[in-house]
Amino acid sequence: MNKKVIFSFFIFLFLFSISFSREIEWHGFVQTNYSFRTTGLVPPLAQGDFLLGDHRFQLKFSGSEKSEFGSFGEAKFFAKTDFFENALKKETGLEIREAYLDYPLKAFDFRIGRQIITWGLGDLLFINDLFPKDWQAFFSGRPMEYLKLGVDGLRISFSSDIFSTELALLPFFESDNYPTSENFFLFDPFLNVSFKQIQKPDSKFENVEEALRLYRTLSNFELSFYLYRGFYRTPSILPDSFPTPSKITYFFPELSVYGFTLQRDLLNGILSLEYGYYDSRQDRRGEDPLIPNSFSKFLIGYQRQGWTDFTYSGQYYGEYMKDYKNYQKSLPPGFPEQDKFRQVLTFRATQLLKYQTLKLSFFGFYSPTDKDYFFIPEVNYRITDNLWVALGGNLFGGEKRTTFLGQLDKNDNLYSILRYEF
After folding, report:
1. CA 400, CA 371: separation in Å to the nearest integer?
2. Structural domain count, the chain
3. 124: number of CA atoms within 13 Å, CB side?
4. 393: pLDDT confidence band, cut at 50, 70 and 90?
5. How many alpha carbons fall within 13 Å on the CB side of residue 361?
6. Distance CA 78, CA 63 (A)
7. Phi, psi at residue 207, to the nearest 5°?
8. Cis amide prior to 143 (ω within 30 degrees)
9. Strand partners, 159
10. What spatial distance separates the first Cα and last Cα of the chain, rounded to whole Å?
């Protein structure tokens, strides 16, 4: 991207914020973020031992403007933009992470623009949070905030004494940013196919994604219900022929999800329950091996504080495949078979030291059915109120290279983050 264009954009953003609001706030940070491989192995398409070399400058603007009519609310705006350099590719770019307008009208709140939406209760396990994720950033050692991607659309919130609700309408489909063979070792049954294309849902009215959340507190329980109609964020594979295709098309099947969450205090901790039924609308009988079957997904989580400045939590997650016999019958020869009931365990521990300036943390995934794992240890030290540094690692492993985490076995890496906030 042309640096003059990027500079002009920041000038425009700054002038817009001044003209829109009498009182504005702006914050940001400057950050360097490096990650390097520890296995001594490099994917064929990668450029060396470094997995990530990122230099980033972020600006956040927010402000408000009161209406001249007393019955109307106060309009607000928020924008968060990143100017970055990819040191590995010698490229610069501009990423608009969020840019939206808020407007309240009696019991309603309207938000339109690019926004990051987070629903559900899972800790790095997502059931009713159907919004896009950046898995490549997550596995590369970027800060956790970069796991979530923004979506463009309209969100309407309504509050009352009986219940509250959120409705999100997303006209422009945004897929997950998943790891690719350019940077990662991955299992790919069609590795030798050179012609590959991505086919995303067209921006038509019938393809507008709809997500609804109804929630309220009932006695000591926080209860939410979720509805979603849209598409899978991770693509399925469509070969032009089988078993030796010449062209591969990645496409995103239709999906609806119906779920709920329940949370309450229990034994000096917090108990979380979450469930979602994934209705695979293009393969409800489970007879198409190229489209995921319908699933029931659930998790049970518990978090509490141990001793001073120490917290820990654990989760049990499961996904049960519907029409498993049809799936087995339709599975092409040589393709790895998924388990009917996949399970995952997670554990998180965090210890704060030195007047809470030093944070030691660990997060671990382990699947007793897939027999694979993913561990994230990290040390974070706040040098001053504005400056902090973090060192950590992403450690993968598994018995099979065809499972979700096992395929990443050769991608272990160590990462460092240095950030100055203002």
Report:
1. 8
2. 1
3. 23
4. very high
5. 20
6. 7
7. -100, 5
8. no
9. 164
10. 26
Question: Which tens digits make up the pLDDT trace of 323-367?
Answer: 999 999 999 887 889 999 999 999 999 999 999 999 999 999 999
pLDDT tens, position by position, 96-147: 999 999 999 999 999 999 999 999 999 999 999 999 999 999 999 999 999 9
CATH number at residue 52: 2.40.160.10
Q: State how far Cα 47 lies from the chain centre.
A: 26
Residue 422: burial class (beta carbons within 10 Å; 0-12, 13-18, 19+): exposed
pLDDT tens, position by position, 291-321: 999 999 999 999 999 999 999 999 999 999 9
Question: Can you read off the two tokens belonging to residue 329?
Answer: 């019958």
- For CA atoms 241, 243, 246, 250, give the dihedral sign: positive
Position 338, amino acid: Q
Give the structural domain span for 187.
Answer: 2-421
- Residue whose token pair is 């098309």: 249
In this structure, what token pair is assigned to residue 106? 């009696």
